[in-house]
């Protein structure tokens, strides 16, 4: 009888361990993606600045930080929130960023049509932000956390920034710089938040 009970307990143990291993693998994979995209976002920002001309990139130049419809920088208290809430905010920002990056790419195609690598980086970044956002949503689902709640409408945010980007060359360049900077901030923030969950990360 004890042998039969043991044979019933093993599958139960396996069934409890398997989802945990699957969750850890998903978190680790998403964290690695966020870390890689943080490096790409840094490269995008550097590439963007290089193609804007003076005064961008000059020592001491402090560009304006115009508001971006539907998107703001991570709040100062972001790191103090529970991890699932932080990931929800990360996912919401990553959902808004792709159409904003697309608007920046289209404007840069007009201003810097020969900057093929910059335009490609902008296109890749929009695609990568979608992929990371979907991966974060999957982690939230695996954690059993709600992913819903009010979110900015990406199309509306893109329409607003597109209108703002037509206000002149310098404002368009500044706005594009702001979007690229926000992209880096949110991808980096996502990497840090996932690091709280990754095996071997901070408790």
Question: Could you walk me through the main structural features you see in this protein, from its secondary elements to its overall organization?
Answer:
With 203 residues, the chain is mostly helical. Helix content is 71%, strand content 0%. It is built from 5 helices and no strands. It has helices at residues 2-50, 83-111, 116-143, 154-165, 169-195.
Low-confidence stretches: 1-13
Q: Report on the biggest sheet.
A: none
How many beta strands in the DSSP annotation?
A: 0
Alpha carbon gap, first and last residue: 42 Å
Count of DSSP-assigned helices = 5
How do the SSEs run, as a string of H and E?
HHHHH
Give the averaged pLDDT, no decimals. Answer: 86
SSE diagram, text form:
Elements lengths: L1 H49 L32 H29 L4 H28 L10 H12 L3 H27 L8
Give the structure's gist in a few sentences:
The chain has about 200 residues and is mainly α. It is built from 5 helices and no strands.
Task: Provide the descriptors you would attach to this structure in a database record.
disordered N terminus; 203 residues; single chain; mainly alpha; 5 helices
